[in-house]
Amino acid sequence: MAGYVAGLVPWMQQRAEVLDRESRFPAAEIDRLRAVGALEPVLPVRDRQRNDAAAEALASLLVQVGRGNLSVGRVLEAHINTLHLVARYGTPSQWQTVCQSVRDGALYALWVTDPPDGGLLMQRHGDRIRLTGAKQFCSAAGFATGTLLTAHDPEGNRWMLVVPLGIGETVTPLPAPLSGMRAAVTGAVDFTGCEVSADTVLGQPGDYLREPDFSAGAWRGSAVALGGLVALVDHAVAQLRNAGRLDSPHTQARMGEAFIARETARHWVRTVALAAEDPTLDTEHRVATVNLGRIAVETACLDAMRLVQRSLGLTSFRQGSPVERICRDLATYLRQPAPDDVLTYAARWFAEHPDASADGAVRNTSAPETSAPETLAPETAALR
Ligand SMILES: Cc1cc2nc3c(=O)[nH]c(=O)nc-3n(C[C@H](O)[C@H](O)[C@H](O)COP(=O)(O)OP(=O)(O)OC[C@H]3O[C@@H](n4cnc5c(N)ncnc54)[C@H](O)[C@@H]3O)c2cc1C
């Protein structure tokens, strides 16, 4: 699948400029990804078996999509996140329903961020739930057909709900739009007055924050970001070559460092994909490893942006150029929650476990490897 999606990358890259300029949702891209099965569950998430080949295949898919267009990667990543949470916490019937809806063309969002002035409240009335309040930073707002929401009940418990969309919610643009990731169409959604069935409730109170799923899932965002980094370096090299600047030793030194950043991120993404998706590993080790990887990939992307901008100069700030857009998208996308906490958690854990390593999370496991589904196996060789 990732091999096929790699073939879509030039088309996605060519369309990315207009989608960004017009803040237009990448509906055609999502359609093509759906057509090759990329929106269906890729990993054996429901039975929670270790499957390294499938984890690498998912990483390759996300890298490819991020390489084509970071906004598309963000939308796909949220959809996959919702599927994983339903697989993890849903009843058999909820899982079947969601899988069937995906086969029928559903696109799921994941809206969990509360506005500063209050979150989403849920009140049960028999087998119905009434919602009051809004979510902010909602990607695919107005385009997703269903979403996972977090909401508080009157006792203060935090629940997950998987709800259909088009139930009377109001979608509005953010009061101040994001400067990057414009094609992800990230808005605000008010659910006040909407009613859903009680069987939309997923799992138990507090499940959304339960580890390792809460933190370890961040690896998929890192994989998408790596795709953006790969595209950035590719575009920079092409532009420097066209300008006859690649022979300069100063440029070579900077691009050498950019290649190191890219390859560092690539190693980390493979490590965190395997660690995060291996249910046999120790929870804290898994979380600490993914946390380190998230910050390592963020650092690699920030380093590469600085090096590319320094090498290309003002050209890299020309609106409409791929380098300008990817830097703007990456800089925005890298702003994920609580990076300080993520790093200090990992620092504390690794300090307390001097014999542990991030790689060790992968190497030390004794669980047998299972093979990827046949359709995925050929693409797992490289995260590119
Ligand atoms: C492109 C894009 C799409 C998104 N789409 C969605 C979506 O579909 N659904 C959704 O729910 N959300 C979405 N989000 C929002 C996302 O989930 C996070 O809410 C957001 O990225 C958090 O970013 P932040 O920089 O404000 O994080 P923060 O956690 O506020 O971090 C900002 C800084 O403050 C520090 N910090 C955090 N807490 C404290 C504290 N208590 N005291 C001191 N310092 C602190 C952090 O370490 C960091 O340095 C999206 C975000 C982006 C960028």
Q: Keywords, please?
A:
single chain; 384 residues; alpha+beta; Butyryl-CoA Dehydrogenase, subunit A, domain 3; Butyryl-CoA Dehydrogenase, subunit A, domain 2; 2 domains; 4-stranded mixed beta sheet; 3-stranded antiparallel beta sheet; disordered C terminus; binds flavin-adenine dinucleotide
Structure description:
With 384 residues, the chain is an alpha+beta fold. The protein folds into 2 domains: 1-107 and 206-384, Butyryl-CoA Dehydrogenase, subunit A, domain 3, CATH 1.20.140; 109-205, Butyryl-CoA Dehydrogenase, subunit A, domain 2. 51% of the residues lie in helices and 12% in strands. The chain is built from 12 helices and 10 strands. A 4-stranded mixed beta sheet has the order 1-5-6-10, covered by helices on one side. A hairpin with a 2-residue loop joins β2 (121-125) and β3. 48% of the residues are buried.
List the topology elements:
Blueprint: H1 2-21, H2 27-35, H3 52-68, H4 70-89, H5 92-103, E1 108-111, E2 121-125, E3 128-132, E4 134-138, E5 146-152, E6 158-164, E7 170-173, E8 187-190, E9 195-197, E10 201-202, H6 213-216, H7 219-242, H8 249-276, H9 283-312, H10 322-333, H11 339-352, H12 358-363
Parallel strand pairs: 1-5
Antiparallel strand pairs: 2-3, 3-9, 4-8, 5-6, 6-10, 7-8
Helix pairs in contact: 1-3, 3-4, 3-7, 3-8, 4-7, 7-8, 7-9, 7-10, 8-9, 9-10, 9-11
> What small ligands are held by the chains?
flavin-adenine dinucleotide
Mean pLDDT: 92
Number of helices: 12
CATH architecture of the largest domain: Up-down Bundle
- Kindly report the name of the CATH homologous superfamily of the largest domain: Butyryl-CoA Dehydrogenase, subunit A, domain 3
